[in-house]
Task: structure prediction
Amino acid sequence: MSAEAQQQQRDGGAAAFEVGRPDPGTALVRLQGDWTVHARLPGVAEVTAAFAEGAPPARLAFDTSALGQWDSTLLAFLRSVGEEAVSRRIEVDDAGLPDGARRLLRLAAAVPERGDRSLPARKPWLARLGDASLAFGGAAGEAIGFIGEAALGLGRLLTGRAQLRSADLWLLVQQAGAQALPIVALISLLVGLILAFVGSVQLRLFGAQIYVANLVAIGMTREMGAMMAAIIMAGRTGAAYAAQLGTMQVNEEIDALKTIGVDPTDFLVMPRMVALILMMPLLCVYADALGILGGFIVGVGMLGITPEQYWNQTLAWLRVNDFLLGVGKSVVFGVIIAVAGCLRGIQCGRSAAAVGEAATSAVVTAIVWIIVADGICAVLTNVLGI
Amino acid sequence: MAEPGVPPPIAVEGLTMAYGAYVLQRNLNFTVQRGDIFVIMGGSGCGKSTLLRHMIGLKSPAEGAVHYSGESLWDASPERQREILRGTGVLFQKGAMWSSMTLAENIALPLQEYTSLPAAEIRSLAALKLALVGLAGFEDYYPSEISGGMQKRAGLARAMALDPDILFFDEPSAGLDPISSRLLDDLILELRDSLGATIVVVSHELASIFAIADNSIFLDAESKTMIASGNPKSLLAECDNPTVRQFLTRGEGAAVTPVAP
Result:
């Protein structure tokens, strides 16, 4: 068959219908043209309007002699018309419909096997608020339980009652360490540049451009190095941990571990936590150095400070306390990232969508906890005068 | 074949399973005899797999007890639980092979956990278990590199790693073609006959159920309890519960009656 002929055969004309009354008791719907998803379809309203006209018919019949092609759209139309008719106590006579349409409509109308399994009715808002609070409380309890388990696991590890699988650990160290270097380098360099730029605008007013070196050195070592490394690692490694453990949960791999008596905390969480505890301080030092380099570029390149001046000023103001505080915080952040990632992964539901949610939630949880922990550190160091 | 005086390998008493307030099944009572292939059957969503999770220590019952050789699993201390479950092996629905390890490492892990065998010994045991399920030469493959049916067989090799007395199978036929499914059934029968293992299978595959089961229970989602127990073939011949009949005959005699629109 040529393409043209096919086209002609397909073109049965636009979908349309008219409602006639061959006798006063019968409404006859005459269907014309192609009723397919590609056609513009008439609405149901016209048929129902015809029901309302004059004396209500007792019977609804169909004439499909002029009907062209049809698919589910015709069925959907007929189904709505049928429901409308039933609600008006009009008897539906489907004899005039195509054989296939009639069978499909009957199949769709068959009572489902378990009609009582429908979703429960929507609860009032107070009940939903209560449910949400209980769920929140439950989740908080679960998180605290998990932190406790992780602490016990770390204790077992330190006292030598549990062992790390070294092959796993080295792979995780590589992923959380060496492979994170490029992105940490880029971000820290840029943060150093930005700090120097923003600072120089103000400091230049007083002719005090040289203090850009202090600003960058202290800012990076005390706050930004650890913070930037942590946020990058939360997005990079925390999400990866949640997705890995979540997928293991979906595949029942974690259940399989439990059935052979292996504690998932020891086997899955501990290597990840140790990898981050080992790598975060190194990444933090790296980020500090790159940030200071960023400040150096701005200071020397744009503010007219000589390299020796910048170097000496940085060395003079770089305090061990600031440096150690940043590095110490990065260890805490590492623990937070590992706990958040593993917690969300282990809590993961049993579907692909749940893995995505677990990864998202791991990053959000980690970043929130990191900022909160940093805030607490800031208050503490202020009180202690460090 | 109950032996007098010897407690059965598994006895479930008055078990009620629930997720929060939602009760899945209540008051389940059954005994699995030594050397039997015991099938837990029922329609989708009736709680078959959840019952399995209660039996293998993954989910604690809302009420009732699971006894292993007369000892209650859920009343035991965690160490004792571990000891009891050491004598069991589980094949999960999709195999649940640990994806970051090779097949040999997967099978080696339970051995490393429970024994102090030297590495070479463990390696050769792992190779043996893989050969038993027809996967000789696949020791260094990762689970993602082999087909679903092979992953399932590898899962079986791992379940057998510690030569357990009791093996659990969660829907062994799921996702397998008819021939692989038949081969797995043969393997299950072979394991029972050669190792004398007691085997508990969760399944709704009729062909497989009739081929392997010595004994069975039927869980019903509507009444939330078990409504039949016994050998499936005799259930087919004798049981007159319509739900069980419909299940065992694939819905024959109770065809879905279409309702006119």
Q: What stands out?
A: The first strand of chain B starts at residue 10 and ends at 19. Chain B touches chain A at residues 53, 56-58, 82, 85-86, 88, 90, 92-94, 96-100, 109-110, 113-114, 158, 162, 222, 256-261 (CB under 8 Å). Chain B has a mean pLDDT of 86. Strands of chain B lie at 10-19, 22-32, 37-42, 63-68, 71-72, 88-91, 166-170, 198-202, 215-220, 225-229.
